[in-house]
């Protein structure tokens, strides 16, 4: 470290001439003379080697801990979009899903690989679904969600802003395409209780979706999108809608469906009765059901751990390379002969 | 176009020519807004931002709130418009002050006090001593019975000595009353900017005497902004007024200066713009294709089947807006801000305060600090810039005895004082020559002290020194000259004055001692013009030694000599001299020849040494800056010899064995051409040798060279690291600056007088020294400093830091906006190429303003190396000169860095937050904070 202070000898004479009354005046003087004390790390070879080594030493353990935590999370992923189409409709899935007269129930059986500790989170996962499409993302009206019919301007919701000449609450493509598959979980003939409360953000429920706003004129048009809403429940309690309205950033995403608040033992077999209502067939999107426990780091994700280990080990390698170079080829510090005009 | 001016004719002259109203204003109240907006929009950057801002008004395509662009845009425009308005207002105020100054003018035959702006061409203007001349006048009367008046032309050509001006022969002897009623016609050319030429005719109308046409020259005029000195009153006819005066025509409108860094930033901005267009076209096309193939299947997007034609444009335009942040709108604001801070640092610097006058340095132009570090040529004035412009008599050698060698001041030398009191004839003679052989005019001030008015500062110094050595020049009245020596008054009659010319390099007077009636010739001049003409019996070796010794000390030497002239020899010669003086062809040469006949067999008395003190630290400054790779040119209105001497003493050129001085001279085209080619040849040969080769050129040769041999001269200019140009006019100085600029060199012009103003305005950077020649130069300059030596600190410390900081700041600005933009582009690949913005307006704005623009301002107090290191190793400046810190390749580095950082930030935030918590707002916040951390890390790493 090279420290450059505010009192070089050349300035002393001037400094004496100008009486420095207070600390503030002194700081201002130093500022105006561009003479503020500064400290400048000199990147000597040993400094660099130490820094990289230190980085490696810190990062690798962090990575290992993260990896371990991620591995302790147990996750069951089950794709059901093709299985839940009856054999005879396999050739024409779109017409099957669009036919509202058919009851689209379906059963899945999941085997629990390891003991899963409560709470177990239930997600549905959609792939190749562009919730982040610009036309889609913009098609909502936050004012209307909070104030209901009192806010009139729903132009941002186009093309789902009104039907039959009346405004739609909640308007917009996002609400209109609400996910409407439902799941029931049965273990050994007794139904597992799925807690579907508190799956949305508290701030969303309290501040973004109105307590006095009820669905109105929803899914009344000629072209019905996704699920419908109970007109007697205010939006702030329609948690599925709230979760859905938080648009995903990636084209494959998971959204919370609920929580099972019982432990599941290894080798338990769980039957899932689901209503396969939602159309992902027209664009080839996948639908998956996910059961997952959680750790202090959230769900299962090896990436972070791997990244830490990778960065840590590469910085150790770099430090070793530098060290070797320095030992083999030392260069004295501050040697003027190396200046370009002296060579 | 000729103009005919009717003197004192109130009817006809009224509206033919412009009034004497000065106007330096750019705008009027009415045209300010449109003109200023037009000027601002002529910059590419501003057009671009306006286009973006307009596109954002179309809500279908805008990714963010239009206010995020309109706000900063309006702010930027308001700031620069306000600045312009303020500057223009100040110009208006100073014009107003000049215009409303009151002057005496004859109207309807009566002298009236009117405002300067109401002077019309043809009016008779009366001036009193020390008045400033309000417009260009043809002199018609003065208080002096011989029709002479003295003017100081410092503001015009920078020469501080007094010049004599004559009234034309036709007006000679007119009395006070008559001058009020004078009528006549002046015929003169249209306004031009040549301050050395005026060819006119004057014809007085009856009843005023003869009908002859009387020729007028520049000698008969007094020009605007000169001062009337030593003359009680003078009056003249206004011939050019307002902006048509010689000075007004010279003035030229200063162009706004653009620094090399600015130019580079503009270039890089252009490159980024091209890159952006490419990105937009590629992504836009891909987006349209994806829309047609994939998006139609995504039922939840609900694309209509039918769409208007412009739908095809929507996605590309969305990408255009998304990518518009690639060119940061904040760059202009933050650069303006830090640049004004650099300027403040210069103003604040205690080490650049002139200790004598307590004037701090000042940066008038706040926008060009970083150019200081990229200067390649410094063009400097001599008198007052390198020297203090104060001549002092220091040493002398009389009859082989050296005085003043011990003390360095002959005036205090005991030996000399003793010699004077003992009445040594050589010394007395020496002092007499000092006091008599000159053209100095003594004037008594009201307090009784004698003031000397001299055309040449050397003569003034000699007369002053003689006065201090008890030989006081008391009075000069027509041809009688009075000298007081030790209480007794000596009177001399000046019979002839053999004037100084630069060819003869000496001047002599023939005087007759009124007491004894003896006639003698007193001479003084350069050694080579005096010593060879010494009479045969005299040994001149000691004088040669003395001259050499003094020259090495950087003193200006003059040899003094005298001889007695017989009465009949004088009479005979006098006839020849009169004849020569009245010849019309080759007069100068004939006079020189006749003078030669008298100036021989001289008895050399001694050598004087006068010091024009160099300012403190000039040689060191020049040496340091030359080490830093800066080339120096000296442009002076002074004589060649003086210029060379000063150049030698301030390390400008090296003395003989190490350096070589080549001179280009000649009076005709052929001569100049030949010597130019010769010099060029030598120059080409010696470029490989480690030899300091410089060339000297004088004003005449320069004019011919610039006119006819521009190419050769340009080559010479490129080859030569040093040049001395003597006897150059202000406009030639400016031409030389232009020449160097046309070779793509960065030039800095430094000067102190009004004659340097044009050069200062033309150069990339103009530095004015607030010195003795007034403040014109300092006012016109971009920087004003108190002493030449501050230039070192200005360039090496302030210039260098400014350059480094600006280079960092500008590239960093691009880096951080590219960083965020790349993330947006990557995101568009996973959002179906639909042009979704990952970040919302508020966070984008916050990122641009709070997180990036403000913290980075810390870099304005960043110092990579300490001031001392830079001063010790001025070679460090090479980096800045070559633009090593800001050029396409460093920029490519920053570009790559931002791409790499964007990939890292994007991949990490996407993967860490994959699946279950992939809400868009969260991802956007994570990516944003990633960017903030990364750029903060970069700032911390790059600032030292």
UniProtKB/TrEMBL annotation, chain A:
<keyword id="KW-0472">Membrane</keyword>
<dbReference type="InterPro" id="IPR005045">
    <property type="entry name" value="CDC50/LEM3_fam"/>
</dbReference>
<keyword id="KW-0812">Transmembrane</keyword>
<dbReference type="GO" id="GO:0005886">
    <property type="term" value="C:plasma membrane"/>
</dbReference>
<feature type="transmembrane region" description="Helical">
    <location>
        <begin position="47"/>
        <end position="67"/>
    </location>
</feature>
<keyword id="KW-1133">Transmembrane helix</keyword>
<dbReference type="GO" id="GO:0005794">
    <property type="term" value="C:Golgi apparatus"/>
</dbReference>
<protein>
    <recommendedName>
        <fullName>ALA-interacting subunit</fullName>
    </recommendedName>
</protein>
<comment type="similarity">
    <text>Belongs to the CDC50/LEM3 family.</text>
</comment>
<dbReference type="Pfam" id="PF03381">
    <property type="entry name" value="CDC50"/>
</dbReference>
<feature type="transmembrane region" description="Helical">
    <location>
        <begin position="303"/>
        <end position="325"/>
    </location>
</feature>
<dbReference type="GO" id="GO:0005783">
    <property type="term" value="C:endoplasmic reticulum"/>
</dbReference>
From TrEMBL, chain B:
<feature type="active site" description="4-aspartylphosphate intermediate">
    <location>
        <position position="381"/>
    </location>
</feature>
<dbReference type="InterPro" id="IPR018303">
    <property type="entry name" value="ATPase_P-typ_P_site"/>
</dbReference>
<feature type="binding site">
    <location>
        <position position="383"/>
    </location>
    <ligand>
        <name>Mg(2+)</name>
    </ligand>
</feature>
<keyword id="KW-0547">Nucleotide-binding</keyword>
<dbReference type="InterPro" id="IPR008250">
    <property type="entry name" value="ATPase_P-typ_transduc_dom_A_sf"/>
</dbReference>
<feature type="binding site">
    <location>
        <position position="381"/>
    </location>
    <ligand>
        <name>ATP</name>
    </ligand>
</feature>
<dbReference type="GO" id="GO:0015914">
    <property type="term" value="P:phospholipid transport"/>
</dbReference>
<feature type="binding site">
    <location>
        <position position="459"/>
    </location>
    <ligand>
        <name>ATP</name>
    </ligand>
</feature>
<dbReference type="InterPro" id="IPR023214">
    <property type="entry name" value="HAD_sf"/>
</dbReference>
<feature type="transmembrane region" description="Helical">
    <location>
        <begin position="894"/>
        <end position="915"/>
    </location>
</feature>
<dbReference type="Pfam" id="PF13246">
    <property type="entry name" value="Cation_ATPase"/>
</dbReference>
<dbReference type="InterPro" id="IPR044492">
    <property type="entry name" value="P_typ_ATPase_HD_dom"/>
</dbReference>
<feature type="binding site">
    <location>
        <position position="755"/>
    </location>
    <ligand>
        <name>ATP</name>
    </ligand>
</feature>
<feature type="binding site">
    <location>
        <position position="637"/>
    </location>
    <ligand>
        <name>ATP</name>
    </ligand>
</feature>
<feature type="binding site">
    <location>
        <position position="381"/>
    </location>
    <ligand>
        <name>Mg(2+)</name>
    </ligand>
</feature>
<feature type="domain" description="P-type ATPase N-terminal">
    <location>
        <begin position="5"/>
        <end position="70"/>
    </location>
</feature>
<comment type="similarity">
    <text>Belongs to the cation transport ATPase (P-type) (TC 3.A.3) family. Type IV subfamily.</text>
</comment>
<keyword id="KW-0812">Transmembrane</keyword>
<dbReference type="Pfam" id="PF16209">
    <property type="entry name" value="PhoLip_ATPase_N"/>
</dbReference>
<feature type="domain" description="P-type ATPase A">
    <location>
        <begin position="100"/>
        <end position="162"/>
    </location>
</feature>
<feature type="binding site">
    <location>
        <position position="524"/>
    </location>
    <ligand>
        <name>ATP</name>
    </ligand>
</feature>
<feature type="transmembrane region" description="Helical">
    <location>
        <begin position="818"/>
        <end position="839"/>
    </location>
</feature>
């Amino acid at each position: 470290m090279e420290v450059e202070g505010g009192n070089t000898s050349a300035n002393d004479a001037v400094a004496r001439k100008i009486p420095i009354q207070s600390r503030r005046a002194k700081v201002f003087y130093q500022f105006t003379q561009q003479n503020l004390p500064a400290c400048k790390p000199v990147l000597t070879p040993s400094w660099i080697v130490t820094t990289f080594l230190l980085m490696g030493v810190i990062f690798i353990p962090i990575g290992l801990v993260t990896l371990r935590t991620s591995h302790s999370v147990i996750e069951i992923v089950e794709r059901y979009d093709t299985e839940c189409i009856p054999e005879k409709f396999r050739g024409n899935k779109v017409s099957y899903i669009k036919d509202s007269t058919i009851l689209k129930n379906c059963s899945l059986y999941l085997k629990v690989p390891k003991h899963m500790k409560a709470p177990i989170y239930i997600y549905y996962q959609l792939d190749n679904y562009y919730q982040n499409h610009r036309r889609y993302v913009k098609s909502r009206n936050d004012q209307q969600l909070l104030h209901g019919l009192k806010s009139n301007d729903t132009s941002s919701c186009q093309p789902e802003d009104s039907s039959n000449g009346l405004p739609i609450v909640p308007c917009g493509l996002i609400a209109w395409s609400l996910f409407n598959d439902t799941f029931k979980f049965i273990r050994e003939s007794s139904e597992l209780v799925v807690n579907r409360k508190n799956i949305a953000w508290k701030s969303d429920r309290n501040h973004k979706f109105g307590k006095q706003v009820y669905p109105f004129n929803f899914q009344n048009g000629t072209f019905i999108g996704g699920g419908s809403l109970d007109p007697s429940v205010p939006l702030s309690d329609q948690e599925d809608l709230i979760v859905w309205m938080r648009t995903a950033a990636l084209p494959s995403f998971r959204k919370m469906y609920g929580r099972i608040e019982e432990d599941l033992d290894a080798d338990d077999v769980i039957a899932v009765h689901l209503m396969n209502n939602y159309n992902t067939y027209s664009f080839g999107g996948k639908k998956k059901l996910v059961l997952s426990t959680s750790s202090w780091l959230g769900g299962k994700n090896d990436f972070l751990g791997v990244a830490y280990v990778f960065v840590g080990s590469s910085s150790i390698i770099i430090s070793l390379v530098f060290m070797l170079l320095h030992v083999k080829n030392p260069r004295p510090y501050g040697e003027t002969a190396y200046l370009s005009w002296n060579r | 176009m000729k103009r005919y001016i009717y003197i004192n004719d109130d009817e006809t002259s009224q509206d033919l020519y412009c009034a004497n109203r000065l106007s330096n204003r750019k705008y009027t109240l009415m045209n300010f807004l449109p003109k200023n907006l037009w000027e601002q929009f002529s910059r590419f950057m501003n057009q671009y931002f306006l286009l973006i801002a307009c596109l954002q008004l179309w809500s279908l395509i805008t990714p963010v709130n239009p206010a995020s662009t309109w706000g900063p845009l309006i702010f930027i425009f308001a700031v620069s418009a306000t600045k312009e308005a303020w500057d223009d207002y100040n110009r208006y105020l100073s014009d107003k002050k000049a215009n409303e100054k009151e002057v005496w003018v004859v109207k309807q035959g009566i002298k009236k006090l009117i405002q300067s702006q109401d002077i019309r061409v043809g009016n008779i203007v009366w001036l009193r001593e020390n008045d400033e001349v309000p417009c260009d006048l043809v002199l018609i009367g003065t208080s002096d019975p011989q029709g002479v008046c003295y003017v100081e032309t410092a503001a015009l050509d920078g020469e501080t000595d007094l010049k004599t001006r004559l009234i034309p022969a036709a007006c000679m002897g007119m009395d006070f009353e008559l001058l009020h009623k004078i009528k006549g016609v002046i015929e003169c050319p249209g306004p031009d900017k040549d301050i050395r030429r005026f060819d006119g005719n004057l014809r007085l109308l009856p009843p005023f005497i003869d009908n002859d046409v009387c020729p007028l020259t520049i000698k008969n005029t007094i020009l605007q902004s000169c001062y009337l000195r030593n003359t009680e009153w003078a009056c003249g006819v206004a011939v050019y007024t307002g902006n048509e005066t010689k000075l007004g025509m010279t003035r030229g409108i200063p162009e706004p200066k653009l620094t090399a860094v600015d130019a580079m930033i503009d270039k890089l901005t252009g490159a980024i713009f091209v890159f952006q267009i490419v990105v937009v076209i590629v992504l836009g096309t891909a987006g349209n294709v994806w829309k047609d193939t994939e998006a139609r299947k995504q039922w939840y997007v609900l694309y209509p089947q039918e769409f208007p034609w412009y739908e095809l444009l929507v996605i590309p335009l969305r990408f255009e807006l998304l990518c518009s942040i690639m060119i940061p709108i904040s760059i202009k604001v933050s650069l303006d801000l830090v640049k004004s801070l650099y300027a403040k640092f210069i103003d604040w610097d205690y080490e650049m305060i002139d200790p004598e006058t307590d004037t701090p340095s000042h940066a008038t132009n706040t926008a060009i600090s970083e150019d200081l570090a990229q200067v390649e040529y410094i063009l400097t004035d001599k008198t007052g810039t390198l020297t203090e412009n104060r001549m002092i008599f220091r040493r002398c050698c009389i009859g082989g005895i050296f005085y003043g060698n011990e003390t360095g001041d002959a005036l205090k030398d005991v030996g000399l004082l003793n010699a004077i009191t003992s009445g040594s004839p050589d010394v007395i003679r020496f002092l007499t020559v000092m006091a008599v052989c000159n053209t100095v005019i003594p004037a008594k001030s009201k307090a009784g002290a004698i003031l000397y008015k001299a055309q040449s500062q050397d003569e003034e110094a000699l007369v002053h020194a003689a006065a201090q050595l008890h030989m006081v020049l008391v009075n000069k009245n027509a041809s009688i000259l009075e000298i007081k020596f030790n209480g007794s008054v000596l009177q001399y009659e000046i019979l002839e004055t053999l004037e100084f010319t630069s060819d003869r390099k000496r001047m002599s007077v023939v005087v007759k001692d009124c007491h004894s009636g003896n006639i003698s010739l007193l001479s003084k001049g350069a050694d080579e013009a005096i010593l060879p003409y010494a009479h045969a019996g005299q040994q001149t070796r000691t004088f040669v030694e003395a001259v050499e010794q003094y020259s090495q000390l950087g003193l200006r030497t003059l040899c003094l000599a005298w001889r007695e002239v017989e009465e009949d020899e004088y009479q005979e010669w006098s006839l020849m001299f009169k004849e020569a003086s009245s010849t019309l062809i080759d007069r100068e040469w004939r006079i020189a020849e006749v003078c030669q006949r008298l100036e021989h067999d001289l008895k050399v008395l001694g050598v004087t040494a006068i010091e024009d003190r160099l300012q403190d630290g000039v040689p060191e400054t020049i040496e340091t800056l030359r080490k830093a790779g800066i080339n120096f040119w000296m442009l002076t209105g002074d004589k060649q010899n003086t210029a060379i001497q000063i150049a030698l003493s301030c390390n400008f050129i090296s003395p003989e064995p190490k350096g070589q001085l080549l001179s280009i001279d000649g009076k005709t085209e052929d001569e100049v051409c030949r010597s130019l080619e010769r010099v060029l040849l030598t120059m080409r040969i010696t470029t490989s040798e480690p030899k300091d080769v410089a060339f000297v050129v004088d004003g005449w040769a320069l004019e011919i060279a610039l006119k006819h041999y521009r190419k050769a001269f340009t080559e010479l200019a490129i080859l030569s690291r040093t040049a001395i140009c003597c006897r150059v006019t202000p406009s030639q100085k400016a031409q030389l600056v232009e020449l160097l600029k046309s070779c793509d060199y960065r030039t800095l012009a430094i000067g102190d007088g009004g004659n340097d103003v044009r050069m200062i305005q033309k150069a990339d950077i103009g530095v004015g020294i607030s010195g003795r020649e007034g403040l014109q130069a300092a006012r016109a300059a971009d920087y004003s400093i108190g002493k030449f030596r501050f230039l070192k600190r200005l360039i090496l410390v302030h210039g260098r830091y400014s350059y480094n900081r600006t280079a960092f700041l500008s590239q960093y600005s691009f880096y951080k906006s590219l960083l965020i933009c790349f993330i947006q582009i990557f995101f568009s690949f996973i959002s179906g190429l639909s042009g979704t913005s990952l970040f919302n307006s508020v966070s984008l704005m916050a990122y641009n303003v709070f997180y990036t623009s403000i913290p980075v301002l810390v870099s304005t107090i960043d110092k990579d190396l300490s001031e001392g290191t830079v001063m010790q190793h001025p070679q460090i400046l090479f980096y800045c000169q070559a633009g090593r810190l800001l050029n396409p390749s460093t920029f490519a580095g920053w570009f790559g860095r931002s791409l790499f950082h964007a990939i890292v930030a994007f991949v990490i935030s996407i993967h860490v937050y994959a699946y279950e918590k992939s809400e868009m707002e969260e991802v956007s916040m994570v990516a944003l904070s990633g960017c903030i951390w990364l750029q903060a890390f970069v700032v911390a790493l790059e600032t030292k």
